[in-house]
Write a structure and sequence with these properties.
With 168 residues, this protein is an alpha+beta fold. The model has no long low-confidence stretch (mean pLDDT 91). The longest helix has 38 residues. Helix 1 packs antiparallel against helix 5 and helix 3 packs across helix 5.
Length: 168
């Protein structure tokens, strides 16, 4: 992990740890319904103030918490068009398999690349610190993965260009 990434991830980890105090809360509108309040937003008193942690204007995390759920939206660094395309394709690949990742949302929040939804049921079934570790690990690995894919695309393009130019 780079020295500039560490304080950013530590801030995200600390904020997630603080927001991860989730409890069971029935809907105040419909009897016997338990919906993630951060998604439906029916009761303003159950929503906490959203926190945006930004490394720069293109790389940021939005953490929206309520009494029974947390939504974590991540904007991944995209320096050029190749990284934008790779990020879009990779996130689409992940979101198509959202049922395999229990906390992954199918659609990200507007302005972000990927979103996770953690409910009180997830924190009852899984360890809270492991959920936080997963999100942090995902943030670390996504940058590495996109960089590796970019290097692979560039190497492949170089080989193709060499083969094409051999004919002239």
């Amino acid at each position: 992990m780079s020295s500039t990434l560490k304080p950013y991830l530590n801030a995200v980890r600390t904020t997630l740890d603080a927001a991860m105090c989730l409890g069971n809360f029935n809907s105040q509108v419909v009897e016997r319904h338990i919906k993630p309040e951060v998604e439906v937003k029916t009761s303003k008193e159950l929503l906490l103030t959203p926190a945006v942690i930004a490394r720069n204007e293109k790389e940021k995390v939005l953490i929206e918490a309520s009494y029974n759920s947390i939504r974590v939206s991540i904007a991944v660094k995209q320096a050029d068009e190749i990284e934008e395309i790779l990020c879009q394709k990779f996130m689409r690949f992940m979101m198509m398999r959202a049922e395999n990742f229990v906390i992954l949302r199918r659609k990200p929040m507007k302005g972000y690349d990927i979103s996770f939804l953690i409910t009180n049921f997830h924190t009852e079934q899984m360890l809270k610190n492991k959920l936080v570790d997963f999100v942090i690990h995902f943030m670390e690995e996504i940058d590495k993965e996109i960089s590796e894919m970019k290097l692979s695309v560039n190497a492949r393009a170089r080989i193709v260009a060499e083969e094409f130019l051999k004919r002239f």
